[in-house]
Design brief:
Helix content is about 25%, strand content about 25%. It has about 300 residues and is α+β, with helices and mostly antiparallel strands. The strands form 2 sheets. Strands 8, 9, 10, 11, 12, 13, 14, 15 and 16 form a 9-stranded mixed sheet that branches. Strands 1, 2, 3, 4, 5, 6, 7 and 17 form an 8-stranded antiparallel sheet that branches.
Length: about 300
């Protein structure tokens, strides 16, 4: 189910000197991050009126770097911009991302494009406001640390998509921050959102999968972010896609999370349910690690090489 063709290991990325300040792209200009700034009266600073993406670039087996599923990320960002009545130029954002990676001499990096409302007033009508676009590229490790994660059911509900679209809108992430903080205070690595009917929604920054009797199932819920890593894993595994109850997670053989930063992260425990070995998740983690570096045949269209 998860077999793949591989090639040689990737060469090491070329990193900028340790003392060199990172370069960022801001409204068409690449400059030192230390020099760029936005006004304190920026609308997004006060109200969260922005849209962003989390994207990854990887050093590839053939040399050079590749951004993983760049087009899909920018299409989703465009949907978020439309929700905020912003004009978003995906071609400009794509070129800015590649230019910033090159300026920082990075191959392995986390890429953060952000479009937000700045000047024009502090009222709630966005029509008079001016929007800005920036790109930052950063050295990155999985925010879940690459280890098996202890998960707890959140005491908060996920913001329903009937209130705020399930997209990467800046202000919407307060919901995730509060749930993540509460879980951390209770000694857990991540929080799981449920709805009022005990159906699984997602985690604070990842989608959820389970494995039962060797079969992979992807959680489906209208309030969950349509994850691009999730979509990739569904295609790789032929996973079932359906609503899942928390009781099914407790009864699963394995549970894992997917996300751009987390990649594929195994769950060690969900509250008092401890999972044993996770062979399917481990196999998928290894496959995904090869996929993003261009070592799996048939997926070249997912890589934007530079």
């Amino acid at each position: 189910m998860l077999s793949a063709t591989t090639t040689a290991a990737p060469e090491a990325p070329v990193a900028p000197p340790a003392t060199a300040p990172l370069q960022q792209w801001f409204d068409g200009e690449i400059a030192s991050a230390e020099r760029l700034h936005a006004p304190l009266t920026s609308h997004a600073l006060h109200y969260g009126t922005g849209v962003f993406e989390g994207i990854r670039s990887y050093a590839t087996a053939a040399g050079g770097g590749a951004v993983f599923r760049l087009d899909a990320h920018l299409q989703r960002m465009a949907r978020g911009a439309r929700a905020l009545a912003m004009h978003f130029d995906a071609d400009q954002a794509s070129a800015a991302i590649i230019d910033t990676l090159r300026a920082n001499r990075q191959r392995d990096a986390y890429v953060r494009p952000l479009q937000w409302y700045g000047e024009g007033g502090l009222g709630l009508d966005v029509a008079p406001l001016r929007s800005h676009l920036m790109v930052a590229t950063l050295p990155w490790n999985s925010h879940l640390g690459g280890h098996r994660v202890r998960l707890t059911v959140s005491r908060l509900r996920r913001t329903p998509a009937t209130s705020v679209p399930a997209l990467k809108l800046c202000g919407n992430y307060i919901n995730s921050i509060l749930a993540k903080h509460d879980a951390s205070e209770r000694g857990f690595g991540e929080a799981l959102f449920l709805d009022a009917n005990q159906n699984v929604v997602e985690c604070t920054g990842e989608n959820v999968f389970l494995v039962k009797d060797g079969r992979v199932t992807a959680v489906a819920h209208d309030d969950a972010l349509p994850g691009i890593t999730r979509d990739s894993v569904i295609e790789l595994t032929g996973a079932d896609v359906r609503p899942v109850t928390v009781a099914e997670l407790h009864a699963a053989d394995e549970v894992f999370l997917t996300g751009t930063s987390a990649e594929v992260a195994a769950i060690e425990a969900l509250d008092n349910t401890v999972y044993g070995d996770n062979p399917v998740t481990r196999e998928l983690q290894a496959l995904y690690a090869r996929l993003v570096r261009g070592e799996v045949t048939g997926y070249e269209h997912w890589l934007t090489r530079f």
